Amino acid sequence: MSETSLPANFQLLIATDPAHYDSFKGLLQEYAERDLADPKNSSIWRDMAQLPGRYAPPHGQVLLAYRDGELAGCGAFVASLTPSLAEIKRIYIRPHFRRQGLARVLTLALAEQAHLHSFQTAGICTWAHNAAALALYQDLGFEPIESFREPDKAHLVFLGLPLAQPD
After folding, report:
1. 149 lies in some domain
2. Model confidence pLDDT, tens digit, residues 86-118
3. Which CATH number goes with the domain that contains 59?
4. Strand order, beta sheet including 60-67
5. Phi/psi of residue 159, each to 5°?
6. Distance between CA atoms of 87 and 93, rounded to whole angstroms?
7. Closest Cα to residue 86, out of 74, 77, 94?
8. pTM for the structure as a whole
9. Would 26 be classed as within a structural domain?
């Protein structure tokens, strides 16, 4: 994983053991309590109960971000209903680490990891009112695509980024 574009003193770690998934679960809980737009209808609760579940390799992966040893944020990708598309999700940056470029780095690192796992497209979805996230994703090259989720999620904005073919 390329760390040249990481903001100062940040490190990314691929989750590989139960302690990493416990850290991820803690961040998901924090995210659900602070920022989740529709907690009642979210799959986050099932995800937390079944970790590592769909986030485990080879069909998923979790990245944890640290700054000077302190857990700063997370993100993940999972296989989607479209076999060649990895869904990037659960990008969460703790409030005091925001506005430092970490969400950008996590998104790009997750796309890179999805590519290394032979996915051809990185997909992401968010609420239409999440202007900051939409601006970031579009700035990274994500473009509107058809829904890659269940039909009842059609109210979300779906974006995709083609990934280079594996070498």
Report:
1. no
2. 999 999 999 999 999 999 999 999 999 999 999
3. 3.40.630.30
4. 10-14, 60-67, 70-79, 85-93, 121-126, 157-162, 143-144
5. -130, 150
6. 18
7. 77
8. 0.88
9. yes
